[in-house]
Amino acid sequence: MKLPNLRLEVMQTVEKSMGELINKYLKPIEKNWQPSDLLPDSKSPEFYKDVKEIQELAKEMSYDLWAVLIGDTITEEALPTYESWLMDVEGVDQDGRNGWSKWVRGWTAEENRHGDLLNKYLYLSGRVNMREMEISTQHLLNDGFDIGTGIDPYRNFIYTSFQELATNISHRRVASLSKQTGNKRLSKICGIIAADEARHASAYIDFIKRIFVLDPSEVMVALEDMMRKKIVMPAHYLRESGGAIGNLFSHFSDAAQRIQVYTTHDYIQILEDLLKQWNIETMTGLNDSAEKARDYLMALPQRLQRISERIKIPEKQYEFKWIAI
């Protein structure tokens, strides 16, 4: 479905600054970190000693922490789905290789390192049933996802702004919990991934700021629509071998809530941060529909807070096929 011409004009206007934006938010490949920088060197005489240390420290991590780490890894490994989705967004010219397509490719290239690094770490840890994890990853790629954005760039960049902040929180918290168990290597791995996510979040937040200047009412309505639908996680179709689409996500989410890696409070905090960064409360030049959307958005955090107070997280741990006891 084609979107109003104004959206394409807005994308073309912002695209003129894409060279500057890419230089600001993406790092030169030759200077960027790579997975091998953070893993034991297989050519080193110390390799087996390092692997043994990884496996010994792995025993100190809780069951829920393992579930979250593996689920985060599978989410990162489903990157081809995210790239193909963004390449279909209105204004991203894949054939012409315009600034937007260069951004999507550059963002993908940086994000691709996350899954590579975490996957190798999990393999070395000796705590993961890699075949079951790989089945879940293949299912997630095969099943695709629907994040409620269509090809609308406004909704897509609202989603990625929110989602990159959420993944930053998740990886940062796993880093902190890993450090508490003495696992400095995993803490560093998750911390450096979290830093990438924070930088990418800043980029998408910047895109929306620029779009707000050009088309404030339509972005406001798009933001209201996304928040009414709720921001779904990219792994919402997560499943194990033999399971139905999406039947595993609630168990993964419960594990994250139990250990405070990503909670309903974090969801609300992200919303509040975005409302502040995008100056939603004080924005001017809005039409009637956008004013109503703004009213809804400004009242939403308190409404969500009241709802969250009634949510109870199951204490019983689900037995994931991914985890080798």
How would you describe the overall organization of this protein?
The chain is globular, with a radius of gyration of 20 Å. The protein is an all-alpha fold and 325 residues long. It is built from 13 helices and no strands. Helices cover 66% and strands 0% of the residues. The chain has a domain at 5-24 and 47-202 and 234-262: Ribonucleotide Reductase, subunit A, CATH 1.10.620.20. The relative contact order is 0.14. The model has no long low-confidence stretch (mean pLDDT 95).
Summarize it.
This protein is mostly helical and 325 residues long. Helix content is 66%, strand content 0%. The longest helix is centred in the middle third of the chain and has 31 residues.
Topology (SSEs and partners):
Elements: H1 5-15, H2 18-25, H3 47-58, H4 63-77, H5 79-87, H6 99-125, H7 130-143, H8 153-180, H9 184-214, H10 216-229, H11 249-258, H12 264-277, H13 288-308
Helix pairs in contact: 4-6, 4-7, 4-8, 4-11, 5-6, 6-9, 8-9, 8-10, 8-12, 9-10, 10-13, 12-13
